[in-house]
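batch_manifest entry 22 of 60
target: T9SS type A sorting domain-containing protein
source organism: Algibacter miyuki
requested by: lab member K.T.
priority: normal
notes from requester: please return tokens only, no post-processing; we will run our own comparison against the previous entry in this batch. if the run fails, retry once and flag.
--- input ---
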Amino acid sequence: MKRTLFLTCLIVLTFAFEASALRSMYVNGFASILGDETAENNLLSYAQTNGIEKLLLYDLHIVNSSHNLSNVSSNQILADFISKAKTNYGVLSVGAVAENAWFFTNVINTYNNSRTNATDKFDVYNLEFEYWGDSAVGPGGYYCNTYLGSTEYPCSNDGAFKFVLSILDDMRSLAHNNSHPITTEAYLGWPTTAQAEELGDHLDELLLHAYVANPNTSFSYAKDRLIDFANGTPGLDVSIIFSSEPNFMQNWLLSNSMSAAEDIFTIDWMNASSAWTNNINLTGFTYFAYSFNENVTLSTGVQDVANNVMVYPNPVKNTLYIENLNNVKSIMVYNNMGQLLMETKAEEIDFTQFNKGLYFLKMDTDKGVETKKILKN
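--- output ---
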């Protein structure tokens, strides 16, 4: 009886993690992609094929210099790209990456406020400020010369950390005062235990790097930092960053897949069986970066199960339509905690009964089980 109960719980926990996991990707070189229809579609097709649901865009300062993102006419080119990603390619959210509060306030947030359609807007404000790098924040370093030297914060690790907290607070203030829901997050490398305890209260989600050449070492590489965050800010959302650069995981990915790497980390996470793992929400995995990913074959196992089942619209506001159900035995709707909400075989599902958020359709077919992620607006 105990063994059966344990296995049942393990299956439920595994599905709950897989159901809530989100795959994200940093997009480098975005300034040269935007406006080039072929390059845009190649990027978005790659994201769709590989189940990438969040795009984090670099180079927006370059885009701004060419297209003035504060102006509703000149920023249309960016709005068209974001809308296309969300409505045609299954991207659930698009994030803006920047390194200072001024840019978020005067460019990104101003851009969002200039757009009336939610599908045109950024959904994530992502901070990348590597305060833990002593050479970058010390006297003569990039962050010291560019930012810290003209502020009240000293050119040191501690001064840079406090400066980062002030940026994150400004970002959260922008998000809280925005009619469009915004998630604030930051890329983190090597915070101290004390810094980890403080950081969680200043953002919604953190992206923690696990830059290894083989995912078999990824959990042990990130474990101590995860424990610090779990103990410091229970309930914090965390996405693990894998790097597809040649000196990290690219060679491994040439003969394996993203989902295989994620499964290795997840199994190690579950086998840890420690109380601290219950104090942190592992939301998914993020990949750095597009130019290193695009030439790697990344079979993910998230494609349709040869049934040509069509599910639309996604995101959905009212009714979700499902076509080609001939080989589908049942459809189960789960929330992002892995809880079963309903089971049906209908061609239409009324989503007005559900709150905004992420949901999952688990379809039992003649040729296997297929899970589709659905965003309710």
